[in-house]
Structures
1.
Amino acid sequence: MKVRDIIKTCEACPSQWDGHFEDGRMFYVRYRWGHLIIRVSPDLTDDVYEAVEGKEILSKQVGDSLNGFLDDDQFRREVLMFLDNFEEEKQTETGYGER
C-alpha cells in the first residue's frame, strides 16, 4: 500500500504526522519517550481521530526515554520505509507483524 500524502503536525514532544494511504484510509504517526507508533483508520476518512484510535501497525522503541524529536533522516528510515512496504496481508492473529 502506498502513501498518498503526509504532513507533520507537531515538530517535537511528541513529533507527529498524519496522512492517507492511496486507498483513502488515514494513518497517524507519533514519536514520544523514544517510542514510535503508527496507527491506521479502519475505514476511508479525513478524520485523524479515527486513525489515532485505529489499529496499531507499528510499535517500536527507537530512542531513549527522554527523546520526543524524530529528525528527517530517522523519519525516512523508520516511518516512510515501513509505510511504503506495509501490506495488509501481513496481519497476524494478534495484530500486524513487524518487518
2.
Amino acid sequence: MLARRAAGDLYACRALIDDSEVEDSIIGFHAQQTVEKALKVALVLAGVELPHTHDLESLAELIGTSGTGLPTEIADMEWLTPSAADFRYEEPAALDRPAALAAAESASGWATSLLTAAKRPQPYPRRKTPKQAPPAPNG
C-alpha cells in the first residue's frame, strides 16, 4: 500500500512540476510524501514498526539502525521535510522543483527495488549429490 501511494504522489509531482500555476508547496508536498512513503517501505521490509512522523531525517536514521543500507542520494533528503506541513501552512522559500522531483524519483526507485528483491524467490541451497556407487564388476 505504501509503495502504491508513493507512486501516486510521484505521479502527481511529475504531472504538476512544469505547471507555473501550481504552487511550490504542492510540488514539495508530493515529493516529500513520495520520499516518506519510500522510506517507510524500507522500514516495513526490515520489520520495524512505523513511527508516526514526517521527519525524513529521523526515518533515514531508523533505516540505518535497522540494517538496511540507505543509498547516499536518499540519505540527504531531509531538506524536503518542511514540505510535509510547514510549506502547507506558512509562506515557503522557493522550492528547487527539479531537485524535489529527482529526490522523489530516487526514493521511489529504491523502494521499488527493495520490494522486487523481497518478492524474488530465494534460490534453494545446492544439494550435494551422493556419490554414485562404482559399477558392479562383470563377473
3.
Amino acid sequence: MISTAHRRPPRLETIRRRLDRWRHRRPHARAPLPPPLWAAAVALVPAHGLYATARALGISYGALKQHVDRQGRHAHAPTTARFVELPAKPVSEAYVVEIESVRATIRVRLPGLALSELAEFTRLVAGPTS
C-alpha cells in the first residue's frame, strides 16, 4: 500500500516542478525568481498557508511574505455582488444609494422612486451581470 500522507496537492506539485526547472536553467545561482513564478507561489498561499507553501516550494518564507503583502496592497480583487434586501418606502421618501470604489464613493439620492424603479436603476448602473 502506498502512503499518501506526504503527497502534496497537484497544483502545488506543478509549481514545485516549474521552480525546479527554473533553478536548473537559471543564468547564475543568485538570479532573482521571475515574477510569474512569484505570482504562482503567492496564489498558493490562501489554500496552503504561508509557511507550508514556502517550505514545499523551497523558497524564502520572508520573501514570500513580502510578495503576499505587496500583492494585498496592490490587488483590487473584484467584489462579488451581494443581495441586499431593501425595505419598501413610501414614494414620498428617498432612497440613498452608495457606490464605493477604490478611488471614490458616490452617493446618489433618488427621491420619488418605487422599489421596482430602484431595481431597474441599479441594473443600469451595474451593467451586465455576466
4.
Amino acid sequence: MDEHLQAELATWAILDERKREEKFERERVRYPRLIEQMGINLLQLDNKIVVDLGSGPISMVSMLEVKKGIAVDPLVDEYRKIYPQSPLIDWLRNTKGILTSSVDLVICSNAIDHFEKPREMIGEVIRMLRPGGYFSVFSCINNATINPNPAHFRNLTYSQFRSWVDSEFETVHERMIRYGWRKWRGKVGQISFAWLGRLTTKY
C-alpha cells in the first residue's frame, strides 16, 4: 500500500472509538445535501446501475434507491474491518469487472483529487458509462494546499476539471459550494464544485 492510500486509510481507521464514530457520523450527515448539490436527485435511479468511484467506507450509493449499486475503492478490504458494508452493494477494489457501456451513473465524491492519474480515471468512467449515461463529481478546489494531507494527491480547479470532460459530456448541472469544517477566507467551508454531466459521445 503506497503512502497516499495509507494516509487515506488513517483518516478513517481512528483508534479512539468515539472520535471514529464522530467522523463517520459527520460524513453520513453530509451526503443528503451533497446528493442535491451534485444534481443526483434530478435523476430517476430505481431503474439504474450506479457506480460510486472512490467510495470510501460508507458509499453514497447506500443512501440512494437504485437498481444496482457498486462501490469501488482500492481500500475496500481494509474498510470492511472498521465499518459494516451494506450487503445491497457490490464492493470492488477496482473497475476491471464492470462491463463496458453497462453503467447509468458514475459518482465521484471528494475523490478525484486523490487519483494519481485523474484523466485516465475519467477515461475509465467513459468506458463504463452507456451512451447518454451520467457522471457526477464533487471536489474541493486546491485541496492539497488548503487541507494538506498525503491523501490529497493534487490541487484541482474547476476549470481544469472542465477541460478534461467538456469534449465528451454535456454539462447539465453545476454549482460552486462551501464544504467541510476547514476555514477558507474567514468562513467555515472550503470552496468546492459540484457537477453533473451527460455523456454525449458513444452513440
